[in-house]
Every structure is written in C-alpha cells, then in structure tokens.
Amino acid sequence: MSESATAGADWMRGTRRSAVQDRILEIAGAVFGDRGPDASMSQIAAAVGCSRATLYRYFDGRRRLQVAYVDRVARRISAAVAADVVVEDPGERFTESVLTALEHVRAEPALAAWFVPRGAGVASELALSSELIERAAVALLGDESSAPADGDRLDAARWVVRVIVSLLAVPGGTPAQERATIARFVAPVVVGRRGLADTR
C-alpha cells in the first residue's frame, strides 16, 4: 500500500463511519465530475487516499456508492428547492420546483457529468431506482395535488422523475422554452388543476 493510501486509512480509522462515508461521497463527486458516473472504485479509492479494499468496507460495490451519492445529492437539492421556491399557486410552484431542480443539477459539474450521453444511462437508472428521489418528487407535487391515493401520488412522482431526467439528458431548448413546456404539458397533468386544452 502506498504512503498516501496508508495515511488515508489511518485518517479513516480515527473518524466516525458516517463522517468517513460523507467524505468519500464528497470526493467521489469530484471524481464523477472528471470521469463520469462510470468512474471505477480504484479511481475513487486513489482520490480518497485509501486502498480499494478499504473503500469496499464503506461501500460494498460501485453501484452502492453511486446510489449513496445520488441520494446525498437528491437530499441537498430537495432542500434547496424547498428553500428557493415560495410560490402559492400549486401549478406555478410545481413548475418553479422542477426548473429550480434542473438549475441546481446543471450548475454543478459533478452532477452535469452524469447527464452527458456517455453517462445518461447510468444516471437515469439510478435516479429511477432511488427511493429518496421518489420522495423528493412526491414533495414537488405539494399537498394540493389531485392524486387521490398514495399509490397514484407515487406513480405521478415517478413520472416527474422521468421528466426531469429526460430534460437533463436532452435539454428542452432555452430556459423559457423549458418553462413553457413544463407549465403547459406537465404541471396541468401532475397537479391536476386544469385540462391540457385549457392551457392553449
């Protein structure tokens, strides 16, 4: 083991497990920004300053580390959206929330790298399998969503995740065009305030 890997392992032994995992995910984000979501455990371990075996003690595989990273980012963006969007109208609030989430993801190189063509498949799969992202999408629906049951709200939330992932992978033109598309074709259906015909 190299001297830097030994130093990294020494630092980990003296630190709470949750703090080590947080630091690993922070460093992994930078690696993902440079190398995309398919960065190897060896590359991440080298950036952390530990051996691959040590990294596996905290995350038992690359997919587990990727999911933890996506969940961590989703939690942070969800909190940012909740703080940034203060609109009362449910349809407008939903539209602003989606646009704000897109803006936060696109503003960070470590996140944007997940949605270039070579990484979009992995990012989409992880986003669509993340329970935390589903919960964040349910929060976007707000209390006034017309979905009458938890199952319907969850189905709507999953569809919202697909819309967001699609716009990240294939942007919908200018910000104004994306806003118009979401306001016209997504918000009315998800929030259920009016029919599509009324939005023309």
TrEMBL record:
Domain HTH tetR-type: 18-77
Entry keyword annotation includes Transcription: no
One Pfam family, short name: TetR_N
UniProtKB keywords: DNA-binding
DNA-binding span(s): 40-59
Organism domain of life: Bacteria
Sequence intervals crossing the membrane: none
Name the UniProt record assigns to this protein: TetR/AcrR family transcriptional regulator
Organism: Gordonia hydrophobica
